[in-house]
Amino acid sequence: MILIYNILLHAGVILGLPFIVPVILFTRKWRNPFLNRLGLSSLPGVISGSMDDSISLKPIWIHALSVGEVISAVPLVSKLFESKNNPIVFSATTQTGYDISKNLLSAYVNRIFYFPYDLLFSVRRVGNRIDPALVIIVETDIWPNFLFEMKRRSVPVLLVNARLSDQSFAGYGMFSFVMKRVFGLFSSICAQTRTDADRFRLLGISPDKVTVTGNIKFDQSLEPVTDIDLTQLKQQLHIEEGRKVIVSGSTHDGEESILLDAFTRLKKRYPELLMIIVPRDPERADSICAEFDAAGLIAVLMKDLPDPGSRKEMDIVVVDVIGLLKKLYALADFAFVGGSLVNAGGHNPLEPAAFGKPVLFGPDMSDFRQISKMLLEAGGGLRVHDAESFYQAAVTFLEEKGKALETGMKAHALLTANRGAIEKTMNGINAVIKKTGS
Fold it and tell me: What CATH number does the domain located at 12-221+420-436 have?
């Protein structure tokens, strides 16, 4: 199987070179990590040289795909840092994931680097340089060559906070014979929900490898945003006291046009209303501003805001930096979680819930299926389907302060009541370590 996979993979790379090379040369988010992901270039202070010679234990390698998975991994990395003597290395696949890893995890890990492409020489080269005792993959990003290389090296690999969306389950089901072998390379799978666990078993994974540990997103840090923090954020964003604010986080292409339709109507009813948009891909910020400007609204990039204290008229602030979204949710009267009005699986609705904010999201929350269902059942969120339903929900929360407060409190209560997945996940990790002697 792996031979056929590599023949197809490398043939595809060779045939695609005329298209791949221009994309890499002219697209920053692909160009910057390219050589590192190939394993051909070392970054100073990242994976260059060997691990600290004073540390005899092999490192624990934790991997997360992008921003959402990195944020999910923070409490797990912190727990491993506290409880294990092994050095910890951390990888991310995307540039935004790598950047936010540097911001959130530098205090806990010895190295942060880009995950290698799933090419034989790349995974082998990076594997040789890190020589891990254990690999932990958070949620997703599953690559056959990497898993086979770790198997060859007798390195146990765990998939934690594991989930299978409806789309992934259907896709994997079409190739169940292949996926059974790929998932069988994991030493343990810690699933978010009973449904996820059942889906892994239906793909042929041995039942004794799959356990339900809950969703570690519930264990995110609940560090409060202080009044001083809020004041500084409002000054930075030129938000006058009492101005109503909508925060739309992790939006995807196609969602801003829906938000524009709803917001245009809302502005007629609430002239002082401000929307803060935080796109999933910061490189889209300029085009989002242009879309709102073309509709007669005043949209400003966050980096272009003048110094705090000066007056700036604006209807929309588009945030073109990463790492601020969680704090920005604290400013909201209510929040919208993106990736859900288009077919992108949604994003984490617990981030605004942590601040006691009412949460809106669209119909596609397949990546957060259980959390969104729990929020709806608890009365901590509302599902919207289009500009009209967004408008109606917004009016409810902007007009009825009591309703907004009650909904936000229910969202926060759900979050605090479901914590504890980290401890169960750590039990799963420790069981593998004990079994394999890693």
Answer: 3.40.50.11720
